[in-house]
Write a structure and sequence with these properties.
The complex is a heterodimer of chains A (304) and B (500). With 304 residues, chain A is an all-alpha fold. Chain A has 13 helices and no strands. In chain A, helix 1 (2-28) packs antiparallel against helix 13 (270-298) and helix 6 (126-140) packs across helix 8. The longest helix of chain B is centred in the last third of the chain and has 18 residues, at 443-460. Classes of the chains: A mainly alpha (304), B alpha+beta (500).
Chain lengths: 304, 500
């Protein structure tokens, strides 16, 4: 296992390095930050001063070498927009995104596994049909539409929940609910499909013939064997959320890293773009290693 | 504690934390974007201005809609000749940290906005190409000299936010200290900014004691926050969200929408073609449909409240047959009117920009223009809108909005129309002289010169297609007595808000 972890960390570091190189050069091809940062009427002299102050006049390769040397000292550069270390902006946003992703994915995973397993046990029954119908609607509902409709109904019309923000427990209900819908529908379908396959296996038939309780068959024998593809999909969905739930962050005023990343790209705030990509990529690499470890725990046949 | 009482406690605690109520004297303002910087030298950027300008940091003079230029930190001013103006400063004014305000602070603030180590927008936007020097006469009298001389120097002082002379020349401040009616208490990044009333303010008490600024990008959410009472003012909401006439106010937002036409490239280098562009557009059809009621047809680049705005000019009538006729005449003289013209729009520039651009394209095509619409994100759009223009650009028309809430055309005319202007589509020595002369003139002569310049641009050489003076919408909670004005686009003075 130790060898595996070292190998995995090394390949992740190489991938991260390639990503940083690509993003560093590609983002600089997208336009001049001086034109975006300064007023339209700014003179060429003012733009030149801005470029000079931000080191944008140096040859691209010199800028890259300087960036790499700073990175080795864990310095991620200064945000041109915010005039503060880029990593501070990113970690502040990532803290919110991580909380949102962890809470939402926990709720999604528990609900989808539970409901998907029960639906698969009586396939074609009333419960299965209802669950399948609503999960398919959930998987295809656009986030922004659901979010706005939820605000109109629960905040404006009923007055039950605040429209947006992060201050109290109540503020978290709508963002989490909106984020919940799509991965829940998708993961539930995967759980159901995987459980259907496991429940028709010989060992399940044998367990039934021996009179083992349904709950034990589903949640002990069936679920453990059905979990591998489910974990893969959960990991994929969680990675998407760690990159930032841009729509939900934008509508509900969550100061997460997804919106920060999009704003930084639009504003050509290079240091923040790179810092946010490094932080989210590192988080996703760590999560993938954890998933690999989980595979080995769930299926003893898997050895690294 | 058993489960039942634990549950009860949790429900009560959660209910108590419901965030809707606020103190009667507090206001919450929901802005469309988070402030990246809070330094007063950036207060000309609208969202920064709405928090900082005249609330935390005051200006030397103040332009008041309907009243003109008024005293603020300067009580009076007089022209000393040769580009020098003397400003007599208000006495017994202190900064919110208790330090006294004097002429040193003015001198430092003027120097700081032009600092080499910062890129202050006020310095770049309003003092580009102008050298400012100061001479302190005594602690409350200062001579300010502009080179070249600026007849509107007192008006220019209405954009200079005053900071303490101890503020660094090479670093933006993160907790501004000003002489204004409010102190900047706290900025929780990503969340909110808190201001509270300055007890030592020279101008007396204000009704609002505390203000909280929060940030929501989505217009529907901002509107909903005021409707539910979570916020008191949303200074900028979209047309489609302004659905409650009792709390939604429209106001001229100082933005002018126009099509910048390239006067140097065929076929738009022919005045008949430019006139045809103007006659091809049914401006009235936009108002009350895809643009808000209250939108005004434009005949000048600046809002109608600007001095020197020529109210005698008439918008071009929608006359497709006249447009066709003009094109036919130009064609007969060898102008390549069939040549494809790129019509450039800016994505998300204003509500319904896509629909507006598509309608404009259709109207131009109806009279025979070969127009191709292209919509661009801001960075690409800027490359097409601002100089240097590409040599092989071909005929190009660029949709743009221009903001001038400063009361004088000087802030617009050079950049948009002079040969050296960053977004000008024309090289015209006569116009350059007209702009230079009007810029240097004062009083009624200045007003008359700007009127003539606007007539020349609109009627004689038809430089561009002026479309609309736009309106903005603010939603204001019924508990407040506050009416948005043209200045709401750039500042929001808390001291002007009364509570019902």
């Amino acid at each position: 296992m130790t060898n595996f972890l070292i190998k995995r960390a090394t390949t992740s570091a190489v991938s991260l390095l390639i990503l940083v190189i690509l993003v560093f050069f590609l983002v600089r091809l997208t336009g001049d930050p001086a034109s975006l940062f300064l007023p339209l009427d700014a003179s060429e002299e003012a733009k030149e001063k801005f470029r000079e102050l931000n080191g944008l006049n140096d040859p691209l390769f010199s800028q890259f070498l300087r960036y790499c040397s700073d990175l080795l000292k864990l310095e991620f550069g200064t945000s041109m927009r915010r005039a503060e270390p880029a990593i501070e902006s990113v970690l502040r946003g990532f803290k919110w995104t991580l909380q949102l992703a962890l809470i939402t994915m926990s709720v999604v995973a528990i609900s989808a596994i539970l409901i998907g397993s029960i639906a698969a046990f009586k396939v074609g029954g009333f419960f299965d049909r209802i669950v399948t119908f609503f999960s398919l609607i959930g998987a295809s509902a656009p986030d922004f539409w659901v979010a706005i409709v939820a605000i109109v109904i629960f905040s404006v019309n009923l007055g039950w929940l605040p429209t947006s923000g992060t201050g109290t427990l109540w503020h978290w209900i709508m963002p989490i609910s909106v984020l919940f819908i799509r991965p829940f529908g998708l993961i539930l379908q995967v759980v159901r499909g995987s459980m259907l396959s496991v429940l028709s296996s010989d060992f399940v038939k044998t367990a039934r013939a021996k009179g083992v309780k349904n709950t034990v068959i589903i949640f002990v024998h069936g679920l453990r064997n059905a979990m591998l593809p489910v974990i893969t999909v959960i990991g994929d969905q969680a990675a998407g959320m760690l990159n930032g739930a841009v729509i939900v962050e934008t509508i509900f005023g969550f100061p997460g890293v997804g919106k920060l990343m999009i704003d930084s790209i639009l504003q050509r705030d290079f240091a923040v773009v790179l810092a946010s990509i490094i932080v989210t990529a590192a988080a996703i690499f760590i999560m993938n290693i954890l998933i690999d470890i989980l595979y080995a725990i769930l299926d003893p046949r898997i050895r690294y | 504690m058993n489960y039942s009482s634990l549950l009860k406690t949790a429900v009560i605690a959660a209910a108590m934390s419901l965030p809707f109520s606020a103190q009667a004297n507090d206001v919450t303002i929901v802005l469309s974007e988070e402030l990246d910087i809070v330094d007063p030298c950036e207060a000309s950027r609208s969202n920064i201005g709405r928090v900082i300008a005249q609330n935390v940091s005051e200006t030397i003079t103040e332009l008041v809609p309907g009243k003109g230029l008024q005293p603020r930190l300067a009580e009076s001013w007089e022209d000393q000749g040769n580009g020098t103006w003397r400003f007599n400063l208000r006495k017994n004014v202190s900064f919110s940290d208790g330090s006294a305000f004097d002429a040193e602070d003015i001198a430092h603030s003027l120097k700081r906005i032009k600092s080499d180590k910062l890129t202050c927008e006020i310095g770049i936007k309003y003092f580009g190409g102008i050298e400012i020097s100061t001479d302190i006469i005594d602690s409350h009298t200062i001579d300010i000299t502009a080179e070249p001389a600026q007849p509107i120097l007192p008006l220019l002082m209405s954009v200079v936010t005053v900071m303490r002379s101890s503020e660094p020349m090479d670093k933006y401040v993160v907790k501004p200290v000003g002489t204004g009616p409010y102190t900047f208490d706290q900025y929780i990044r990503g969340m909110q900014i808190n201001l509270s009333a300055n007890p030592n303010y020279w101008g007396g008490d204000s009704a609002v004691k505390k203000a909280k600024y929060i940030f929501r990008s989505d217009s529907a959410v901002r509107a909903a926050m005021v409707a539910t009472g979570e916020a008191d003012i949303a200074p900028n909401i979209a047309l489609q969200d302004a659905t409650k006439p009792e709390i939604d106010f429209s106001y001229p937002n100082s933005e002018t929408l126009y099509l910048r036409v390239d006067n140097e490239v065929a076929p738009t280098n022919d005045v008949r073609v430019r006139r045809a562009l103007n006659h091809a557009i049914d401006r009235e059809a936009f108002i009350g449909t895809i643009l808000a009621n209250g939108t005004i047809q434009a005949t000048g680049m600046t809002p109608p409240s600007t001095i020197g705005y020529n109210h005698d000019l008439k918008p071009y009538a929608f006359d497709p047959s006249k447009a066709k006729d003009l094109l036919a005449k130009a064609k007969a003289d060898g102008v390549p009117v069939e040549k494809e013209i790129r019509l450039i729009g800016r994505i998300n520039n204003f509500a319904n920009v896509q629909e507006t651009m598509e309608a404009l394209q259709a109207m131009l095509q109806d009279v025979g223009f070969n127009v191709k619409l292209e919509m661009y994100e801001v960075a690409e759009w800027l490359d097409l809108y601002s100089k240097p223009y590409a040599e092989d650009r071909g005929p190009i028309i660029v949709e743009a909005m221009h903001d001038n809430a400063n009361g004088d055309p000087v802030f617009s005319m050079f950049f948009k129309y002079a040969s050296g202007g960053a977004q000008s589509g024309r090289n015209d020595a006569k116009l350059d002289k007209m702009i230079a002369d009007a810029t240097a003139a004062t009083g009624s002569e200045r007003e008359a010169m700007w009127k003539n310049t606007m007539a020349y641009i609109h009627d004689d050489v038809v430089i561009d297609v002026l479309l609309f003076h736009m309106v903005g919408f603010s939603r204001v909670n019924e508990r407040l007595d506050f009416t948005p004005t043209i200045k709401t686009n750039s500042e929001l003075q808390l001291s002007q808000i009364a509570l019902k």
